[in-house]
Amino acid sequence: MECRINPSFTNAVLQPLHIAVTLCFFAVGFILGGESVVLALLAGGSWIAVLYCCCYELYAGLVRVKLRTDMRDIPGFYLSSPDNCFWVAEAEVRGRLQIMGTVAVEATELPGSGKKYGELVRMIVSSASRRTGLGLRLLKTMMDFCEERGFSKIVLQTSSTQTPAVALYKKMGFRPVQAHMQAGFPWFLHCLARVSLLRMEKILQP
User: Fold this and answer.
1) Nearest partner of 147 among 118, 185, 184, 190, judged by Cα
2) Is it the case that residue 28 has pLDDT exceeding 80?
3) Which residues contact 156 (CB under 8 A, 6 or more apart)?
4) pLDDT band at 20 (very low <50, low <70, confident <90, very high)
């Protein structure tokens, strides 16, 4: 989860408005503390801590949702239907198998058309396997599966701060179609974290 929180936190801290607020907290702490540098640092640090907590809670909430849904029973959810699938990439590290990445696809039928599309979910690559091409191989495996199943398109959601992931999806033909806030979370979390969800899609069969 840290690989998602840290870019979001960095993005939030570097927002011009948030930089101005941080400086204001430092100044107020310095003045009210009788020109105490320690109190100035505590005041500014408290605001930065609020930003981190907002970023953390946003992604922790998403993880809680996942653990209550498909991730509670991966075989039952993904292997009970031939149109769903879950892939795991493993590697032997110091004599032990470790999970290096995952990706899954969930099929959904388009109302009134009889066609199905696949939703890419659970795309995760461990920090040790980044920049090795593993993410690209997982994505290609999932896309090949969707084409074999005759899906009309592939859709996905990713956060706006996951720039390497967004770049990979665009490279593979996905295009952004919508940006929105995650439902079920307080509005101020999104405002302070400065994170939106990007919905992207790739057409397979017009």
Assistant:
1) 118
2) yes
3) 119, 120, 121, 123, 169, 174, 199, 200, 201
4) very high
